[in-house]
Amino acid sequence: MVSQEQRRRQLAREKFLRQQQRRTDSRRKARMRNSVIASVLGVIVIGSVALYTTGVMKDDGDKKVDAAGSSPSAPASPSKVPDPCEKPAKGSVKKQSWKKEPAMSIDTSADYTMKLATTCGDIGIALKASAAPHTVNSFSYLADKGFFDHTKCHRLTTKGIFVLQCGDPTAAGTGGPGYTIPDENLKDPSLKKNTYPAGTVAMANTGQPHTGGSQFFLVFKDSPLPPSYTPFGTIDKGGMKVLDKIAKAGENTGQGDGAPNATVVIDKATVTKS
């Protein structure tokens, strides 16, 4: 027969085990949630010092770099969606790499705009030179070198966050200019309640500070993200219409994270001082 003391100890042990199980379940759910956020992010780049696998961000192709970095699930045989974009202009991606960030050459007190002439339409972007000088200077330098010309926007995320990722010369999520630039403007007034508002252009990274290179993402709908990705531009109304067209065509996995069904190629990128 079990004594009261033995019974008390048994009940205490069972309570302890239940508490441990709940803690374990809670930690597992937290890891899964963080993993989903990271993979959804997929907005990230691989510089000369960091191999990317986003975010904004852990998903981007075949174990590629993203705003956060693991590979998306295999395609779920989604229905074929007509490509709403035109054929790319003739030409090929230049294979270029540099060992260090370019010297500062922009006027941080001036206004700069970037135009992405894509196969789906022109995307105009007002750049934040005073708030993100290293980033804008790098984009001005790379655009002048033709680094972005003929590159494909390789990732579209339509669940959890809503972004189009571009700027990788390999179109695989692993490319970059060979150097990295520091994070900037992470306290931008537009980033409220851990949300990047529609119309934001921000840097992808490896998930670690100061690992941005050339990959960036365009936000076509308010997206919940931590303020870890340098916001350096705002998309104009015409550009938002282009993004809406691309988003409506969907991505190739049918699961909300993959290559866009639209053939989004940057025929020409230019940065202009106003």
Automatic annotation (TrEMBL):
InterPro entries found in the cross-reference section: Cyclophilin-like_dom_sf, Cyclophilin-type_PPIase_dom, Cyclophilin_A-like
SUPFAM superfamilies in the cross-refs: Cyclophilin-like
Compositionally biased tracts (Low complexity): 67-79
Keywords linked to the UniProt accession: Isomerase, Membrane, Transmembrane, Transmembrane helix
Alphabetized Pfam families for the sequence: Pro_isomerase (PF00160)
Domain PPIase cyclophilin-type stretches: 121-271
Transmembrane domains' residue ranges: 36-55
Biased composition annotated in UniProt, kind: Basic and acidic residues: 1-17
GO MF annotation terms: peptidyl-prolyl cis-trans isomerase activity
Ranges where the record places region Disordered: 1-30, 63-102
Keyword Ribosomal protein assigned: no
Function: PPIases accelerate the folding of proteins. It catalyzes the cis-trans isomerization of proline imidic peptide bonds in oligopeptides.
Protein name: Peptidylprolyl isomerase
UniProt source species: Streptomyces seoulensis
